[in-house]
Design brief:
This protein is α+β, with helices and mostly antiparallel strands and 83 residues long. The protein has one domain. 34% of the residues lie in helices and 19% in strands. The protein has a 3-stranded antiparallel sheet, with no helix packed on it. A two-stranded antiparallel ribbon has the order 1-5. Helix 1 crosses helix 2. The longest helix is centred in the last third of the chain and has 20 residues. The mean pLDDT is 80. The structure holds zinc ion. Zinc ion (ZN) binds next to loops.
Amino acid sequence: MLKLVFDVLSKIKRRKGKTIKLCPICLSPKLKPASSISGWLIHESYKCLNCGYEGVIYIEVSLEEAEKILNELKKQKEKLENQ
Ligand SMILES: [Zn+2]
């Protein structure tokens, strides 16, 4: 699965525009800023509502690219399931 994610991400080219944050573990767009009790902390962390991941690392892509990634993953998954 990790190799699959890497393959998909290697196809991404950075572009300007509206972006979306994706979970680095499951690529879910359900990433929310984790509320920090101590407001002076500089590092902003994010929490994935899908797999429970929490951390400062996230994947930022444009909305268009996010759609492509999700479609690609869906295709790859279907391929694997049909083997
Ligand atoms: Zn996740």
